[in-house]
Design a protein that fits this description.
- The protein is mainly alpha-helical.
- The chain has a single domain (3-352), classed as ADP-ribosylglycohydrolase fold, CATH 1.10.4080.
- The protein has helices spanning 3-8, 10-25, 33-40, 56-73, 92-108, 118-127, 134-137, 152-156, 162-174, 180-197, 205-216, 222-225, 237-261, 269-272, 278-291, 296-304, 310-325, 332-335, 341-352.
- The longest helix is centred in the C-terminal third of the chain and has 25 residues, at 237-261.
């Protein structure tokens, strides 16, 4: 990690921002904008609920973070920093096992009562069958935003190779959401978080993401995904994954236009989609962030006051803003109230160095 990234504590800022956005959007999900305004008042003045409960978005983000941490700690001893996970230990079979365990723990938890998505529930129920390959549990036709609302940890862990980061991002999505667009959108989301944490200029972010999508369009991560592609009835793995990248490229084109033309006072879902599906969640979360790059609270408030999947949109917006600005993005009274703040801060501290 760069000195700048360590100084701003991008990992902690991103995880806390994700949870703050999630909690802010929790009460407004399934509401249209007039209903939200009637309930919450002017969107620029929206306050964090008391208590600041989060949804399955934050719960599953923590599951992904724990799975990565455990998988990296199970590797062979090496010259990694003492007391820190070794990124070289992150390999597909180990991560698939720890992700499966964490997803099952989440599925069985009494705290899994925050309106979780159907795809995650169905897939996790199937993951509970020990003799079933995870590829057979995956919901091959689903590209819901559950695939990428939880992927931020993959973009925050230091020391991973590009192949590890891309493979892990797609794998954590694929255990539940098997549609190729879910995989590509998760990969792009993790890449966006990583770029912002490393100090990329937000003005060039969409262009960087489009270039990344073009570069990866024909790359199927067989080492990480196995034969998942065969469930999609595509003629080849390249055709399968290419479908996902093409849909993401199309929504990135819409985002490129929206950043230049959309009024901040207009519901961003009208430009880039309501966010129930993964590629639209990425685009609309990014749009809210890019409309208010230097105003992180305004950005997550805008995302929470939308006609779409407001908690997932706001959590992604918060993850992007926190990765860009670090912990200073969030007022202490808000950060101190958030549910799971101890674990969020612990993971952030581990990855901030």
């Amino acid at each position: 990690m760069t000195t700048t990234t360590v100084r701003k504590r991008a990992a902690t800022g991103s995880l806390v921002g994700l949870a703050l956005g999630d909690a802010l959007g929790f009460p407004t999900e399934f509401n249209d904008v007039p209903s939200i305004l009637a309930k919450c008042g002017p969107w620029r003045d929206m306050d964090l609920p008391v208590p600041a409960f989060v949804t399955d978005d934050t719960q599953m983000t923590l599951a992904v973070g724990r799975a990565i941490r455990t998988a990296m700690q199970q590797g062979e001893p090496g010259p990694a920093t003492p007391g820190r996970p070794d990124p070289r230990a992150l390999e597909p079979r180990r991560l698939a096992r720890t992700l499966r365990e964490e997803y099952m723990d989440w599925y069985r938890s009494p705290e899994n009562n925050r309106a979780p998505g159907r795809t995650c529930l169905v897939a996790c129920e199937r993951l509970g069958s020990p003799d079933l390959a995870w590829q057979d549990a995956s919901q091959i036709h689903s590209k819901g935003c559950g695939a990428n609302m939880r992927v931020a940890p993959v973009g925050l862990v230091p020391g991973l190779s590009d192949e590890q980061r891309s493979g892990a991002a797609q794998l954590q999505a694929a255990l539940t959401h098997g549609h190729p667009t879910a995989l590509a959108a998760a990969d792009l989301t993790a890449h966006a978080v990583r770029l912002l944490a490393q100090g990329a200029e937000p003005t060039g972010l969409v262009g960087l993401l489009r270039s990344y999508a073009y570069d990866n369009r024909g790359r199927y991560h067989e080492r990480w995904l196995g034969d998942l592609w065969t469930r999609g009835q595509d003629p080849s793995p390249e055709h399968y994954i290419g479908r996902g990248w093409d849909e993401c490229l199309a929504v990135l084109d819409r985002l490129k236009d929206a950043v230049r033309t959309v009024s901040p006072e207009t519901d961003p879902c009208l430009a880039t989609g309501e966010g129930w599906i993964a590629e639209e969640a990425l685009a609309t979360g990014l749009l809210c962030f890019l409309l208010f790059v230097d105003e992180p609270l305004t950005a997550v408030r805008r995302a929470a006051c939308t006609s779409g999947d407001s908690d997932s949109l706001a959590c992604l917006t918060g993850a992007f803003a926190g990765a860009h600005l670090g912990t200073e993005a969030w007022p202490r009274p808000w950060a101190d109230r958030i549910e799971y703040r101890g674990e969020l801060n612990a993971l952030g501290a581990l990855w901030d160095g």
